[in-house]
Each structure stands twice: as structure tokens, then as C-alpha cells.
Design brief:
Strand content: 15-25%
Distance between the termini: 39 Å
CATH class of the largest domain: Mainly Beta
Largest sheet: 6 strands, antiparallel
Structural class: alpha+beta
Radius of gyration: 20 Å
Number of domains: 2
Number of strands: 9
CATH architecture of the largest domain: Sandwich
Number of helices: 11
CATH topology of the largest domain: Jelly Rolls
Helix content: 40-55%
């Protein structure tokens, strides 16, 4: 899959914002960016969320605000889903609120969204405002969007996703296309052996240049990015599939149980067995 600047096309719709629902068997890899701010609510789904250099899990009621031109990607687990994955997405230019003095507090939120914001434990009012949105007329929707953003401003439980030093050169289209190719290859082959040499060959680079380029574009070394992605995949398998830990390790691309256990503890600060125990509790 080739990722590039996503054309939202809001102007052509004669609307101030774009709202849509997405229902699918699985959220497929789609590493992309756009100049609009995006609010994504996962009503039903689970997998790994990539926002800038953040690699974290997502599940039901995941609510995230992504700033302008920050690449992002929600990817479902690689196993059969009993239910369709469902997301609700708002995309808009923050400039639509500049003429309203009552919305001045919004701008600080949009500035913060340059690092991506996860809203932990969304309130009932936030969830209701999102799930009922499609049933409103256009005028009501505009008012409801402003009310929703105000709730986001007031919400106390916020987590910033990308690191402070993360930067993204969105004007260099060829870089995001090349990174998307690598990212999607990793996600599609997460259970297989992946090496720097393979990735360098995939991108027509020598290994040393590939490693330097990858870190500049992802914020992580290739090995760190690969291991973090594999561990998130393993976490979901541990939570949702009753299979031996060794099988989880191999299904996530680790060649030995000892390597899996060491890497898991490095990123999750507990062993896989402790993780399962705490999840069941």
C-alpha cells in the first residue's frame, strides 16, 4: 500500500468539516497524513496505533486527536474478528474556529495535538456526542462538533503520544511513501524474520544508510520499532487468545522464548505471565 498526502476534499463538499463512519473486518495498514486535524473514535476494534513515533495498543473507546500533517495509522490484529471493526472520524481545518472568540481555548488544544493526544476514559457525554452525531442535521452537527471539542479541552485525562523531539517533514512526499512501504511490510510480515539487510534491499539502500534514514523518519531505530510493534502484537494475543506463551512469541516474530521474555519485560516492565495475570485480574 502506498501512503501519501490524503486529499480530504472538504471544500468540494461545501461543509466546514468532514465526518464519516468506517466499518470493516479489519483496519488495514495505511500510513498517511493530511493538513486537517483529525479526531478518531474507535467504537469497536483492537490492534496497534501508530501516531508519529508512538507505537501503542488501541481497543474499544479509543479516542485520539491527531494534529496537522502528523502521520498516523490504526492496524487491527492479524486474526479473525467475530465483529466488524468500527470507527468514527472527524476531519477539519482548525482555522474554521478562529473567528469565534468563544473558541479561543480550542487553539491551545490544536497546538498540543501536534504531538497527538489520547483522551483516556472518555466521558459518557463525549461518547454520546460522537455516536449520535450522524443523526443530526448539518447545522446541529456544527454546534455538536464545537461542544465535543469543548469537552476535549476540559477533559483531564490526556496522554501525549509522540515525543517532544519528534519532527516530520511532510513536504518530502517521497520519504513518507518509502517509509510506508517499510512500515506496511513489517506489519504484513510481523510473524516472520525481518532483518536490516532485507529492509535495505526493499528500499534500495545500503544497510547503514537505511538505519540512519529509518530513525530520522520513525523516531526509532529499526530494531526498536520492530520489537515494540511485535510486543504490542503479543500483548493482544495474550489478552484475547488462549494459546501457550511460546506460541505467542513465535506468532509475533521472536525466534526464541528467552528473547521474547527479555524484550517483553524491557517494554512492559513485567513478564508475559505477569501481564496475563494482571489482565485476568
Amino acid at each position: 500500500m502506498k501512503a501519501e498526502l490524503e486529499q480530504i476534499g472538504i471544500a468540494a463538499t461545501k461543509r466546514s468539516f468532514h465526518f464519516f463512519k468506517k466499518e470493516t473486518a479489519a483496519f488495514a495498514p495505511f500510513w498517511h497524513y493530511h493538513p486537517e486535524v483529525e479526531l478518531t473514535f474507535i467504537l469497536r476494534g483492537e490492534g496497534t496505533r501508530f501516531v508519529g513515533n508512538s507505537i501503542t495498543p488501541f481497543s474499544n473507546y479509543d479516542l485520539v486527536l491527531v494534529g496537522k500533517n502528523i502521520p498516523h495509522n490504526w492496524v487491527s490484529l492479524k486474526h479473525n474478528h467475530l465483529e466488524k471493526q468500527k470507527a468514527m472520524v472527524f476531519q477539519f481545518d482548525p482555522a474554521i474556529f478562529t473567528s469565534f472568540r468563544e473558541c479561543e481555548a480550542f487553539h491551545a488544544l490544536f497546538e498540543l495535538a501536534k504531538r497527538g493526544i489520547q483522551f483516556n476514559n472518555p466521558t459518557e457525554a463525549m461518547v454520546t456526542g460522537i455516536t449520535r452525531f450522524e443523526n443530526l442535521n448539518h447545522i446541529q452537527q456544527l454546534g455538536a462538533l464545537m461542544e465535543l471539542i469543548q469537552l476535549l479541552v476540559l477533559h483531564k485525562e490526556k496522554t501525549l503520544l509522540t515525543t517532544e523531539i519528534y519532527t516530520y517533514h511532510h513536504n518530502q512526499k517521497h520519504k513518507i511513501e518509502k517509509f510506508a512501504k517499510v512500515n506496511n511490510h513489517i506489519l504484513d510480515h510481523i510473524d516472520q524474520k525481518l532483518t536490516v539487510a532485507q529492509m535495505a534491499d526493499l528500499t534500495h539502500m545500503v544497510p547503514q544508510s537505511f538505519c540512519r534514514w529509518f530513525k530520522q523518519n520513525s523516531g526509532h531505530s529499526f530494531i526498536t520499532f520492530l520489537n515494540k510493534t511485535r510486543i504490542e502484537n503479543a500483548c493482544h494475543l495474550l489478552m484475547h487468545r488462549v494459546i501457550p506463551i511460546q506460541e505467542v512469541a513465535f506468532s509475533s516474530g521472536f525466534e526464541s522464548l528467552s528473547h521474547f521474555n527479555r524484550t517483553f519485560k524491557k517494554y512492559k516492565h513485567q513478564s508475559p505471565r505477569e501481564f496475563v495475570r494482571d489482565h485476568l485480574r
